[in-house]
Amino acid sequence: MASTSILHFRPLFLFVLVASLRCGAAAGDVDGGEGFCSAEPSSECSGGPPLYWKATHPTLAPAHLQDLPGFTRSVVKRDHALITPESHVFGPLPDWINTLGAYLISPSIGAHFTMYLANMQDGSKSALPPKDVERLVFVLQGGISLSVGAGTTHSLLVDSYAYLPANIKHSMISDESTTLVIFERRYSATEDFHPDLIVGSTDKQPLLETPGEVFQLRKLLPTSLPYDFNIHIMDFQPGEYLNVKEVHYNQHGLLLLEGQGIYRLGDSWYPVQSGDTIWMAPFVPQWYAALGKTRTRYLLYKDVNRNPLI
């Protein structure tokens, strides 16, 4: 009798489940709710959100899963990790003023760099990194005023960035709600090379050739020897994918800024979407395919220009 009742209500359950996945169906889904590989939001659900809005306001999970206690898509393994927004833990950043941070990648996971989010508000101010540590700041939401040295000030808005060489005096101040993604690592000095301060924006960087590949590539830093890492911005149109399954000595830290797709790491395959972070250890097999109906854009840290024996 019990099994007959379950079968009787199954069509109703499926109807409710499908309805809950439609745009805006979930309670609290203020962004119009885009689940994995969903179609573009309809006009009634879209209001022209700002660039990278989904990276800072991601869909945490399908509507029928996001309220389950203990639910997360995050996975941490020996040679890679997927860190998803529902598992972020924010706390006060040491010595920063009125700023909460969430460390996504750090040496404790096996990386030689840190990657973290910094949420600033009106009156927030940054602190300096430790001695001999270089820093790259990329604005995801809002904007900051960056002061470097004695009197030089730069205004950084969404899609802008700054590379700050180790031991350079600087401060960042925000007077609005701002989200930064920050990369830091201990600078690997070599001979008499000294990197320069760089301030720029993604749209000012030229597209580079990618022989044998279809994605679009921009590099935010020079490729010259003074720089021991670079940040790549990679764009994939729907259906595009990496032609080569890469295996190399470089480490990666990745933040998905737009879109959704499938990432292969080692022998595992992960659905990923805006707001997800990935750490890739040296020599882990890696591959990506863009799915959905909008482009994928991700930001990728890569160590360069140094002998791996050092």
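Next protein, fold it too.
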Amino acid sequence: MELPSRYTTMEASSSSAKRSVAVVTSALHCWSYTEAERQHLFRVSRLFITSYYVYVSYYGLFVLDLNGVDHPTWGDLGSNWWWKCVSVWNLVLQVAYFIYCTVFIDYADSGPGKSWIKPRLQQNKKIRDFIFVSLVFPVTIDVCVMFWAICAVNKPLLFPNEMNNWIPDWYNHAVHTNPIVLTLFDMATTKHSLPKLIESTTGLFMLSGSYVTCLLYNKFTTGRWVYLIIGEVTASLTEVIIYFAVTAFIMPFMCLLIGHKMCSWFSSSKMEKKTLNVLRKKLS
């Protein structure tokens, strides 16, 4: 005899609930592993992230034919114009960071260079922490949040609709969405020692100043801004200065402060012990 549809629906809901409980239980069991087991899992995860970013970079450099872009609005921005986009700078930063973590920290005890890499492990970790806290986190959050915020208001000013003919959606998300998730994952799974705020600010402002110089150079040599939005919101030198002061210095600095607070929270041994105790109670 065929069961009524409501019983079938109830069984499906029950099965779905059981699967959800199983997933949550598996995730909680992950935190019941020993410290060595969890760190091994995180190292493998970062290796996967590194491979992912290498593929994204390969696709952008050798598969996308961006030199052939004939954009009616942008016009001629010169060869290799995409290197002037802040999203590409952020992608390079992400790739360099995760490769550095994989080669010089996570797998420092393996490979032909272990004899000179492993003795410098603590120094390598300090470099890693400085790059992450001072550059990777604030630049990633600032770039990705600004991109989607501007797209929500007026997307063609930042990413004209015609660009969909050359850049697929998945690659757009690989550059502007996934970096936030992967950066937060690294923050949550790695204990970053905080550099001095003045040192972090100096490093961040040097990078911001370099990028602003790149944009100004492109403007003076081609007569066009890389981003249409700059020409739309600025009509005088004062407005240009205010625009870059806010977008290239003030907003990244605010993200830097947030990163310092979050890294301090995630790296707190008190928070870690409290979390593990709560998870153990749930598993028992």
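About the second fold: Residues 5-10, 20-25 have pLDDT under 50 and may be disordered.
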